[in-house]
Amino acid sequence: MLFRLQANILILFASLCFTQNSYANKKLTENYISSFKHIAVLEMKRTGIPASIKLAQGILESDLGRSPLAFEANNHFGIKCGRDWSGDVYHKLDDDTDSTGTLIESCFRAFSTADESYIAHSEFLTNPSKSSRYGFLFDLGSNDYVGWANGLKFAGYATDPSYPSKLIKIIEQNKLYQYDEMILPKRNEYTSVNTSKSKELDSKRIEPQIVKAEQNTNKSSKKEKGSNPEKSKYEVQPTVKSKINKINDLSVVYASGNESVKDIARKIGIDVFEILEYNEELKSQDYIPTSNEIVYLERKKKNINEDGPSSHIVNEGETMYIISQRYGIRLSSLLAKNNLDSDAIPLKGETVSLVAYISKKETPKFKMVEKFDSFVDLGGLK
Description:
Elements lengths: L1 H46 L3 H12 L5 H6 L15 E9 L5 E7 L4 H13 L4 H4 L10 H10 L8 H11 L21 H10 L5 E2 L23 E2 L8 E3 L2 E5 L6 H8 L3 H7 L15 E3 L14 E3 L6 H8 L3 H7 L6 E3 L4 E3 L12 E3 L14
Antiparallel strand pairs: 1-2, 3-4, 5-6, 6-7, 8-10, 9-11
């Protein structure tokens, strides 16, 4: 009798512990999702990677943010240092060995915030050099988490044969798919500002003041050294900050220098995620653009208007993104026209084509500033 009573007590105690652990894990999961759903949706808007997939991967690979790598280095996706990483690092034993086969510490990136690791994870999957491996994923709908889960395994992102089922289980148990319903089904699908927003923008527009190049009657006059012959021909002169102007027949505003992207969106009356989508290198709604930085309110065009210049002479410090913003051309289109990838920065004085797709031999000289080219380590999946 006493033995049976003791056994019942032990069973009750074990059941109570299990219930408490389940409740604790549920709260941890809820807290994790609450903390990172914003950056997951933001990155989905920017890159097309489903927020549900990114959250599920973060939950799985960081053990709800409790792994040493996540807790101490804000690295939720096991991102290793790579060749050109110059930031903080975190070392731990993983899968690297020396010439004798002895396990040695691996170098992992250490981030200031976990959000940075979410962004770095996106950069890995969207890196043009890996398009042959992961590019097909972006033809799937951004709410097709099942396709993405299986596609990641097919592409070799993970070696665990149950990796897709683990992601799908996490997504469905926590209803993470609800965050995928906010955006367009395809990353590369062209979408203009909707009719109601277009009318709203039209009502707020002022006449753009496009500064035309003055006709020079003195043909023998010399060009100023280092000047761009096209510089003033296709440039919008900002008038009053936060007023809507035009570049390439697209609505833009010039940042005041003390307002975040979110502030600009609220003032204009446009979804902040649309601004982040239209301006490819604006990473966060909390980012404060510099004074007079161009911010597009509509998706940029693939080409420049017929009255625009056909090329641009690179000035000191200009990146392809800066050039794409100046002329209202999508960054991806500008890079394709010039045979460059996203890590290439053209050298000063080089000619960048704005219209034609140039040959390989005409590619402007450039230097590489690699943003991300590291192996994503999945760690010990449980």
